[in-house]
C-alpha cells in the first residue's frame, strides 16, 4: 500500500529533508584529503541533532552510524571509519533525518580534490539522471516512467545502473512502498498521485552493474572494482507540474 501524505505532513517531511540538504552543504566543505570518514559522520550527527532532527539511519536495522559513505568502488552503505580520504577519491554521503516522526533522505557524491574527467562525468551524469527521473514525477505518469528516464540517460553515456538497490516511498518510515527501480520499461507500475513522496536515488557504475556486499554486511561495492556514484533527493508529487524537491536548502 502506498501511503499518501497530506500537505501538513509534507511540510514536516520538508523540514526533515531541509536538515539533510543543509548537512550536505556543511559536509561538502569538510571533504578534503587527510580527513577520516568518521570525522564526517560526527559532523553529520552533530548537525542533525543541533537542528532538531534525529539521525534516521543510526539504529535502523542495527546500522551503527548517522552517515552512509561510499568511497570509489563502494556503491552505498559504507560505514564511517578511520579510513583517510586521499586526493582523487570520490565519496558518496548518504544521510537521513527524522523530524516529528517524518523522514527525509538524500545523497550526494563529491570529489576529494581534482579527479579525472571521466570520473567527473560519472558524477555529473548520475546527478543528471536523477533529475531526468524527477522530471517524470508528474501526476498521471506511471512510476516506471521515472525509472526509464534514469536508465536512458545513464546508458546513453555508457555507464550502468545498479539493479540490486532501488529508490523508495518515504514518510513515517524510511522505506515505504513503492520501490523505485532506476531501470525498466516506461508505462508500468502505479500512476503517480498527489501526496506521494518518493526518494529517487540512482546508483551508477563506470563498469558493469553487478554489486556485492562485503563481510561487514553493509558496504556494497562494484563487483568489477569500477567507480560508482550515487545521488538522492526526496520529492513530493504535486497537483500539476513537476514535483517539489524537499531535500533543498
Ligand atoms: N538512503 C539509503 C536508503 O534509502 C540509506 C539507508 S542506510 C541504512 O536505503 F543504514 F539506514 F540502512
Ligand atoms: Co534512500
- What CATH architecture label applies? Alpha-Beta Complex
Overall form: globular
Question: Strand percentage, roughly?
Answer: 15-25%
Largest sheet data: 5 strands, antiparallel
How much helical structure, as a percent, in the residues? 25-40%
C-alpha termini separation? 31 Å
**Structural class determined from secondary elements:** alpha+beta
CATH overall fold name? Creatine Amidinohydrolase
List the helices and strands and how they pair.
Layout: H1 7-30, H2 37-50, E1 54-55, E2 67-71, E3 74-76, E4 90-99, E5 102-111, H3 117-135, H4 143-156, E6 160-161, E7 167-169, E8 176-180, E9 197-200, E10 203-205, E11 211-213, E12 220-222, E13 228-230, E14 233-236, E15 244-245
Antiparallel strand pairs: 1-4, 2-4, 3-12, 4-5, 6-10, 7-8, 7-9, 9-14, 10-13, 11-12, 14-15
Which labels suit this protein?
single chain; 249 residues; Creatine Amidinohydrolase; 5-stranded antiparallel sheet; 25% strand; binds cobalt (II) ion
How would you describe what is shown here?
With 249 residues, this protein is α+β, with helices and mostly antiparallel strands. The chain has a single domain (7-245), classed as Creatine Amidinohydrolase, CATH 3.90.230. Helices cover 29% and strands 25% of the residues. The protein has 4 helices and 15 strands. It has helices at residues 7-30, 37-50, 117-135, 143-156; strands at residues 54-55, 67-71, 74-76, 90-99, 102-111, 160-161, 167-169, 176-180, 197-200, 203-205, 211-213, 220-222, 228-230, 233-236, 244-245. A 5-stranded antiparallel beta sheet has the order 8-7-9-14-15. Strands 1, 2, 4 and 5 form a 4-stranded antiparallel beta sheet that branches. α1 packs antiparallel against α2 and α3 packs antiparallel against α4. The mean pLDDT is 98. The structure holds 2-amino-4-trifluoromethylsulfanyl-butyric acid and cobalt (II) ion. 2-amino-4-trifluoromethylsulfanyl-butyric acid binds next to β5. 2-amino-4-trifluoromethylsulfanyl-butyric acid is lined by residues 57, 60-61, 63, 68, 77, 94, 105, 107, 168, 199, 232.
